[in-house]
Amino acid sequence: MEYKHFSHQHPLTLYKLQPGQQFQCHGCHLPCHNSIFACWVCSFFLHDHCGNANRYVKHPSHTMHPLVLMPSPTYCSGSFLCNACGAPGSTFSYCCPLCEVDLHLHCAYLPPKVSHKSHNHEIYISFRPRDQKDSPEYCNICRKELSCRHWSYYCAESGCDFRVHTYCATSEVKPGLYQDDQPDDSGTSTSSTNQNNCVYEPQASAATPEEVLAEMFQLQMQLQMAQQLNQIFNSTRM
Ligand SMILES: [Zn+2]
Ligand SMILES: [Zn+2]
Ligand SMILES: [Zn+2]
Ligand SMILES: [Zn+2]
Ligand SMILES: [Zn+2]
Ligand SMILES: [Zn+2]
């Protein structure tokens, strides 16, 4: 069975890794395990969850706009800084070009709650930036500084002051957590058919991410022009 992925020109085949085989996923640069999508001509590999990731998601960390899956960063630097973990990335990202929100694919699909052996309660993900405190906060697992701008996992029990880095809490990826933000005209439920959703050729009627991006950039331009006009207007009145 051959699959088409929007980020690669050749068809991909699903392949089960043999023990000892080591490949790196092109979508997230992390090592592959279990099943992968492969182009053997180019040595191009994708985790099954990276290959199946929805092109658009409604993400609870950014509810104003859909996040678009981009195969590579749109910035001239060729890299982005992940709003979830703060680390740079140069491959797949979920982004909102209007707000300059960029997430690693694996950060976008972090589980909402996890258990960690260092704490006896379940801990929950928090997307919200926290107020800058006078003294820096430290991660209860690695003891390094915890930036108030990035996501964290925390314990909600009263009396527990437990907060950690997302990447210290878990390396789990939960693909299919969030709904595809595209109108579903095939009549199938996106939550249960996620496994097959995105690797197949997109439906002809669906807007491509490029079209969505173009539309968003246009909106951004209009916004900027309106702001500039406003400035000119205000300065001439002075
Ligand atoms: Zn991957
Ligand atoms: Zn190829
Ligand atoms: Zn990240
Ligand atoms: Zn946005
Ligand atoms: Zn940590
Ligand atoms: Zn606790």
UniProtKB/TrEMBL annotation:
Disordered as annotated region, ranges: 178-197
Pfam family, one: C1_2
Comp. bias (Low complexity): 185-197
Keywords, ordered alphabetically: Repeat
Coiled coil: none
Source taxon at top rank: Eukaryota
Stretches assigned to the DC1 domain: 60-108, 117-169
Keyword GTP-binding recorded: no
PANTHER family: DC1 DOMAIN-CONTAINING PROTEIN, PHORBOL-ESTER/DAG-TYPE DOMAIN-CONTAINING PROTEIN
Protein name, entry field: DC1 domain-containing protein
Species whose genome carries this gene: Handroanthus impetiginosus
